[in-house]
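Hi! If you just cloned this repository, the fastest way to understand the data is to look at a raw example. We've pasted two of them here, unedited. The first protein comes first, obviously.
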Amino acid sequence: MPDHADIYLICGATGAGKTTHAEALALEVSGLRFSIDEWMQRLHNPDKPETDLFEWFYPRVERNWAQMRSVAERLVELNIPAIFDCGLTRKSEREMFDFMEALWEQPDAREMASLNGVRIPA
């Protein structure tokens, strides 16, 4: 058994199937899925204002991302995979995961076969 778990980032446009894929992956690897949509809905939407949504929205998204990352780092120490179901539409959101570049691994043959050999550019 490895001494650490993996962190998965499932990113894409709205409606691309991120949540469906992330839910299946969480079951497959016995991991915990983090969904920014679910966190925002549960923690903040009941209090959202009717105006100035943009100014209200993004500070909360960024605080949620920071907390999710903190929890995920602890999960990895406990050898529990973390799966992020996210859009990462803003540069500040993507920068929170810059540390992963050093951990990135080339897909193996099985993973490439599941993608029919198609590589998705960064």
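Ok, and the second one:
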Amino acid sequence: MKRLLKTQTLSFAVIVAIFFTSTMAMAQQKVKQGPPPVPSKKQIEKMLEELKTKLSLTEYQNEKISAIYTAHFRKMDEMIGKEKDQRSVNHAQMKELRTSFEKEVKTILTKKQKELFNNFMKEKEQQHGKKKSTHRTPR
């Protein structure tokens, strides 16, 4: 009787372990690959408002940078949209797009604002890196 109880308990433990292992494996498969989604108009407005505050932008600068941001994300959306498989989006092209975007923004900024913009972008990159690392699990 004790042996049967031990066997049943062991069988139950193995079944539970298999269940949790398979659940974890399925959860890991849902991690998105490829570039992040293009921000919505509302998210872009929020970014611009934060940038306006941190850099003390003038209305003229804010309007110009708003147009640059909108055009940048439109180009990014087109680039991603052309690729059926988002993982195949060319990283070099994306990096080039970002570099040209940053250069264009900097043409409108003062020297002090450029420094603040660089810090702002580094801060956002670090935040993005932290979010990215929390969604991935080590192999």
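That's it. A detail worth noticing about the second one: Helices lie at 2-29, 41-55, 59-82, 91-106, 111-135.
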